[in-house]
Design a protein that fits this description.
The complex is a heterodimer of chains A (269) and B (284). By secondary structure, chain A is mostly helical. Chain A has 11 helices and no strands. Classes of the chains: A mainly alpha (269), B mainly alpha (284).
């Protein structure tokens, strides 16, 4: 049984990783064939790095991911604070449900709905369509919000109310009490909301596809356009680089994180 | 407790305004476009013309269901066996499950297509060994395979998390009380991991039923799913209205199926929390 379970795990992970490994190996293939490996070369990587569109879309992706996750984190954190303090259960429930809509809906419906909003507003203002960075930013902040709320809300629920009251009794204004007493407690939730939003934004293709314009292209949109019609080997090179980058990040976060935690728990005894 | 200050009262205001402007309003526009014609007059013509898309809906639902069931059949034992490994091995396996999840869907699909394509590695190897080529790209099988390949990790991760949270004493207790291995599985482990299964099913079914990239690449443009139809209709302003009505129907369909799924978990907060694992399962 023990052997069988190991074999099963090995088999499934083998199947899961074959396409990725083939992709990486053939990204070094000189001939640009997917069937036969004729010789190792870096031509596709060279082509990729000489492609200004690829580099500018990487930069665009990073700008969009940073700005949308920061904005969503600020709005969502104050939103969570307000909701936590709110007395009316109905308003609270309603806001929570509405915020979660982009998380529950398939991406294509979220994308289409935002596109219709922008089309309708442009029609109403009788202006040219204004798809571009602005619409992308709005869309990304919107789909990041539920993830921020999801990370921050439990932190608020875990707060000890009497601490903030004590601070206020000792002369803090409510705002000062929030920044001095409650904010430090919820910072881990804010950080994970920020990171979650950043990666969701970096990864998003479907929603961006509906609210973008050709002048502001993110990396996934660039990959989509490049792979729309034919096989491009520089895309294999790009994908390989992304896979390796993600592997390194995952290893660092998982293993460096655990070393850090172990140290902390050792210290605490 | 002190009275809520003005600060606390307005703290949620930007969030609420944002949600109304960019979540509620877009939904209203989907409704509006679904029930008007191109001139903006109220009409049921989009909804009544949906019958011509009946086959597309049936095909999409069938594909998504098949992919979800196969993911569950592969993923549940995998998650179970993974939870039996040493702690260190579990950690490595977790990273291996998450790596594909973190790679963009386009990359995963493109990688699979490169392997299975008619001019790809698999078919050229088959040819060299003297077998016939197997056409996979451009067939129903290819599209379903793409869904399974792309979304299997989303099934494994929530089930695995539920397995690791499971109190081992329950399993020992059931064994002490005379359960066979099979009975422990069906009477103890399975009921206690339902929440993971439910969020796994949701996380595979919803993207499968709405995908268009997988059917474009692995269907070679020959297979039309709901996602492809919506994507195509939204390329031309004159068909926005029909597109909106199809999106509306799909949304209602998904709300109903997710609602039914959530009936199976008594604690719906648990499955809510699992949703966050979509990407953040590893977050420290």
């Amino acid at each position: 049984m023990k052997f069988l379970s190991k074999f099963y795990i090995g088999l499934i992970f083998f199947l899961l990783y074959i396409p990725i490994i083939v992709l990486i190996v053939f990204s070094f293939n000189e001939s640009g064939s997917l069937a036969e490996f004729s010789g190792a070369s870096l031509v596709w990587y060279e082509e990729l790095f000489n492609d200004e569109e690829a580099l500018s879309s990487l930069l665009n992706s990073l700008i969009l991911a940073v700005s949308s996750s920061v904005i969503a984190t600020i709005i969502g954190t104050f939103g969570a604070l307000g909701l936590y303090r709110m007395k009316s259960k109905y308003v609270k429930g309603a806001v929570n449900t509405v915020t979660n809509i982009p998380m529950m809906n398939p991406d294509i419906v979220t994308g289409v709905s935002m596109m219709l909003l922008f089309v309708a507003v442009a029609g109403f203002l009788k202006s040219q369509s204004f798809f571009g960075f602005g619409t992308m930013l709005i869309a990304h902040v919107t789909f990041n919000l539920p993830y921020v709320l999801l990370s921050v809300m439990p932190r608020f629920r875990g707060l000890d109310k009497s601490l903030s009251e004590a601070a206020q009794d000792l002369g803090c204004t409510p705002a000062r009490a929030f920044f001095k007493v409650e904010l430090p407690e919820i910072v881990p939730g804010i950080v994970s909301g920020l990171m979650l939003g950043f990666t969701m934004s970096l990864d998003d293709f479907v929603i961006s596809h509906f609210v973008s314009s050709p002048d502001f292209q993110t990396l996934p949109l660039y990959v989509y356009n490049q792979t729309a019609h034919n096989v491009k080997f520089s895309m294999y090179a790009l994908s390989s680089l992304i896979v390796v980058a993600i592997l390194i990040i995952l290893l660092v976060v998982n293993f460096a994180g655990s070393v850090g935690r172990r140290k902390v728990s050792e210290k605490r005894g | 407790m002190r009275k809520n200050s003005l600060f606390q009262k307005i703290a949620a205001a930007p969030h609420i305004v944002w949600a109304i402007l960019f979540i509620v309003a877009p939904m209203i526009f989907v409704l509006y476009f679904a029930f008007t014609d191109a001139e903006g007059n109220f009409s049921f013509s989009n909804i009544s013309s949906l019958s011509q898309y009946g086959n597309v809906f049936i095909l999409s639902i069938a594909f998504a269901l098949i992919a979800t069931v196969i993911c569950l059949l592969i993923g549940y034992p995998l998650a179970y066996f993974m939870s039996k490994q040493s702690e260190r091995a579990q950690k490595i396996l977790m990273v291996l499950v998450m790596l594909p999840m973190w790679c963009n869907l386009l990359i995963r699909t493109y990688a699979l297509m490169a392997l299975l394509d008619n001019g790809g590695l698999l078919n050229s190897l088959l040819e060299k060994l003297g077998f016939d080529k197997i056409p996979i790209v451009g067939t129903n099988f290819g599209v379903i395979l793409g869904m399974i390949y792309d979304f299997l990790p989303y099934m494994v991760l929530p089930i695995f998390t539920a397995m690791t949270k499971l109190d081992k004493r329950y399993i020992e207790a059931s064994q002490d009380l005379g359960c066979t291995g099979f009975q422990t599985m069906t009477r103890v482990i399975m009921p206690l991991t339902v929440s993971g299964v439910v969020s796994g099913i949701t996380m595979v079914f919803v993207p499968s039923i709405s995908t268009f990239y997988i059917s474009q690449k692995l269907g070679a443009g020959k297979i039309d799913l709901v996602g492809d139809t919506i994507e195509r209709l939204f390329q031309n302003p004159s068909t926005y209205n029909v597109g909106a009505s199809i999106s509306l129907v799909m949304m209602v369909l998904i709300i109903i199926s997710v609602g039914i799924m959530n009936r199976f978990t008594d604690d719906d907060r648990a499955s809510d929390g699992d949703k966050g694992q979509k990407k953040g399962g590893f977050m420290p």
